[in-house]
Write a structure and sequence with these properties.
Radius of gyration: 28 Å
GO cellular component, one term: membrane
Organism: Fervidobacterium pennivorans (strain DSM 9078 / Ven5)
Pfam families: ABC2_membrane_3
Helix content: 55-70%
Number of strands: 5
Subcellular location: Membrane
Membrane topology: Multi-pass membrane protein
């Protein structure tokens, strides 16, 4: 039975998948497993709160009972702020908020007036139909690890007392100070994975096909060379998806809210895959398929993009020269866009526009010089 065009394309894809993924142990390790190992190493070194950390908490209000409770909590430094009037309370509340934002304190609590008396009455009425709970307000910054720890401790204390807690979550800007490293580094490692898959995966594999003369055999067949390149890119995208999936599983175990990243990840990672596919083909064209040139160009872009593109450090803290240079690196916008849901982004705009501009420029350039792919093959 004569094979159809569809079945021939399926067989071609399966052959490429076996060649570049199933039979390549190096690809499985470096492109699927290594991003997870890198994430675990970085979060283990930089992402943990030290055991000897001292949590600074301030309590707006007076309570002898809470003074005794907090004095027994190890590594917990609580200071009580007393006020004489509502105006003074409002002023103190503003001061505490200003201390919380830059990280001078890790959390603060606002107690109602006569907290001890209110709590005693609530305890007496607890098992009657007149039961009531005392309302307290806990302020902390969940995106900062130490502040979140302080908030969790305070929450546990007031829950055990049977009080009603109202946890106020403050939006914390990355430009103002500390940030939770595990949440920050997760998009950076995804960016590194995308780079690795296309610079050391797709680009090297297409160069291998040219060098071994495999593509030459298809020039006299109905199969278009473009199909081979597209299928090779798809094989690498499967590797990327597997790598990000394994990474996300371990990131979730380390406390990263992976689900919140997912919508932006689907959009921006897809755009990045198209961009790097076109970039890889352009590199092959202008390197004239010479392995040494491909290696040098790939290494230069990989190192510059990874270390100057804000993958492992917040661009808002970078000096103006590095920050302005990073604006010209296309994958910077992909990683920065992934950080938008957690307000960890360094740029306010350009997350879609800049990659699309690169895609259009690289696409037009590929159309103009596409014949050089065949010249390089010869």
């Amino acid at each position: 039975m004569k094979p159809t065009k569809t079945s021939s394309l399926i067989e071609l894809f399966i052959s490429l998948f076996k060649q570049f993924f199933l039979r390549s142990k190096e690809s499985v390790f470096w492109l699927v497993i290594f991003p997870t190992i890198l994430f675990l190493i970085l979060t283990t070194i930089f992402g943990n709160v030290e055991e000897n950390v001292e949590l600074k908490v301030k309590i707006l209000g007076e309570s002898k009972m809470l003074e005794n409770i907090f004095s027994d909590i190890k590594q917990f430094k609580a200071e009580f702020i007393i006020f004489a009037s509502d105006a003074e309370k409002s002023s103190k509340l503003k001061e505490l908020d200003n201390e919380l934002r830059p990280g001078k304190i890790h959390a603060f609590v606002v107690l109602p007036e006569n907290f001890d008396s209110e709590f005693s009455i609530a305890t007496i009425l607890q098992k009657t139909k007149f039961q009531r709970k005392v309302l307290v307000n806990i302020y902390y910054v969940p995106i900062r690890q130490e502040s979140k720890l302080a908030g969790d401790i305070l929450s546990s204390v007031f829950n055990s007392l049977g009080t009603r807690e109202e946890v106020s979550v403050e939006t914390y800007k990355l430009s103002e100070g500390e940030f939770e490293y595990n949440e920050f580094i997760y998009p950076g490692v995804i960016g590194m994975a995308i780079l690795s898959v296309f610079i050391f995966g797709f680009m090297s594999e297409v160069e291998y096909l040219y060098r071994r003369g495999m593509l030459r055999r298809f020039y006299t067949t109905p199969i278009n060379i473009i199909n081979i390149l597209i299928f090779t890119a798809l094989v690498n995208m499967i590797e990327l998806i597997l790598g990000i999936s394994v990474l996300s599983l371990f990131a979730n175990l380390k406390g990263v809210d992976v689900g919140k990243y997912l919508p932006s990840m689907v959009l921006h990672v897809s755009i990045a895959c198209v961009l790097l596919t076109l970039l890889s083909l352009n590199v092959l064209i202008f390197s004239k398929n010479k392995p040494s040139r491909i290696f040098v160009l790939g290494q230069i872009y990989f190192q510059v993009q990874m270390f100057a593109g804000g993958f492992y450090f917040p661009l808002k803290f970078a000096n103006p020269v590095v920050k302005n240079f990073a604006r010209f690196l296309p994958l910077t916008y992909t990683v920065d866009a992934l950080r938008l849901p957690k307000h960890l982004n360094g740029f306010e705009k350009g997350h879609i526009l800049v990659p699309i501009i690169y895609i259009l420029l690289l696409g037009v350039n590929l159309l103009i010089f596409s014949k050089r792919l065949k010249v390089a093959e010869q």
